[in-house]
Design goal:
Elements lengths: L32 H10 L7 E5 L3 H4 L8 H4 L9 E4 L1 H7 L7 E5 L1 E2 L11 E2 L3 H6 L4 E6 L6 H18 L3 E5 L9 H13 L4 E4 L6 H7 L4 E4 L6 H13 L4 E4 L1 H4 L4 H13 L4 H12 L1
Parallel strand pairs: 1-2, 1-10, 2-3, 3-6, 6-7, 7-8, 8-9, 9-10
Antiparallel strand pairs: 4-5
Helix pairs in contact: 7-8, 9-11, 9-12, 11-12
This protein binds ribose-5-phosphate.
Length: 290
């Protein structure tokens, strides 16, 4: 039992209240405490930005280049990321629970690259997401795709489940091969995702009008890296996206398919968190590569 001697009444009640402070992420101030706490494990509260390392590709591609051995290619990169985007299989088999990163759990799946990719279902229960201490749940949305309504239903079902458990949902806008990747399309896909409850949205950078996508979307946007390009070009795209309102990057192939993944991830961090220009970030990449 606690010592009951010398119980003192509080007396220091003066002064104005400490500022309540706004939340560091667009459109999320009204969310529950737990959901905001989880978002804060994905987006650094110091600047509201994130560098997510995406290595969930195996859920439909199998052991693609750079991800043949997650233990060798991904584990060494974990300390440099703010958050890890992966499947529950990769998480349980390969990522140590003491990693300290926000886990953005891939929560949809079904078809492989051999089939129609938009035919996804939800692939993780909310109970398992809670067991895995997921900081967010990621679901693919195929606006304009063959299974548009089904994928939107996946999103809204996951949002309902996630809101109940305090877990935010990341909508990943997926574009069919024959569809135009322009600002008009991404304004549509990102806005639909946010209006239907996604707490943040992943999309691709477009050269013309990306700032109209970020400004019309009421929640944070992160960009996917896309297919592997030269490091200088990937850093330019990351820099432009941040300048034009993105809250971070969710980069996979342009990191783990680089010949120097750790140097690349450090350069991306420089762009996202340290205000490096793409040219300074490329210099950093080269320095760290040697
Ligand atoms: C794609 O379906 C996955 O969600 C990837 O995580 C995403 O595309 C980001 O990876 P990358 O930078 O390789 O495009």
């Amino acid at each position: 039992m606690a010592d009951l001697d010398d119980l003192r009444d509080g007396t220091d009640f003066g002064g104005s209240a400490a500022p309540a402070g706004g939340f560091h992420l667009k459109g999320q101030a009204g969310q529950d405490w737990g959901l905001r706490a989880r978002l804060s494990r994905v987006f650094d509260p110091a600047d509201g930005k994130t560098v997510m390392l995406a290595f969930d590709h195996g859920y439909f591609q199998g052991p693609t280049s750079g991800l043949e051995r997650l233990d060798r290619s991904i584990l060494p990169l974990v300390p440099q990321a703010d958050a890890l985007m992966c499947t529950r299989g990769a998480l349980r088999t390969t990522i140590p629970p003491e990693n300290g990163k926000g886990i953005v759990l891939r929560a949809s799946g079904g078809p492989s690259i051999l089939k129609e990719l938009s035919d996804e279902e939800l692939a993780v229960s909310i109970d398992d997401a809670v067991r895995l201490d997921a900081a967010a749940l990621a679901v693919q949305v195929f606006v304009g795709g063959e299974n548009e309504t089904k994928s939107i239903k996946n999103l809204t079902t996951l949002v309902d489940q996630g809101q109940g458990a305090g877990i935010p949902v990341l909508a990943v806008t997926a574009v069919g091969r024959d569809m135009v990747r322009d600002a008009r399309y991404f304004r549509l896909a990102t806005r639909i995702s946010a209006e239907l409850g996604a707490a943040f949205v992943k999309t691709y950078y477009v050269e013309d009008g990306f700032e109209t996508i970020t400004s019309a979307c009421p929640v944070p946007i992160v960009i996917a890296g896309g297919k592997k390009v030269e490091e200088r070009e990937a850093l330019r795209v990351a820099y432009q996206a941040i300048q034009e309102g993105a809250a971070g990057v969710d980069m996979g192939r342009n990191v783990f398919q680089s010949e120097h993944p750790a140097a690349m991830l450090a350069a991306v961090r420089g762009v996202v968190h340290d205000g490096l220009t793409s040219s300074d970030a490329f210099d950093l990449f080269q320095t760290l590569s040697h």
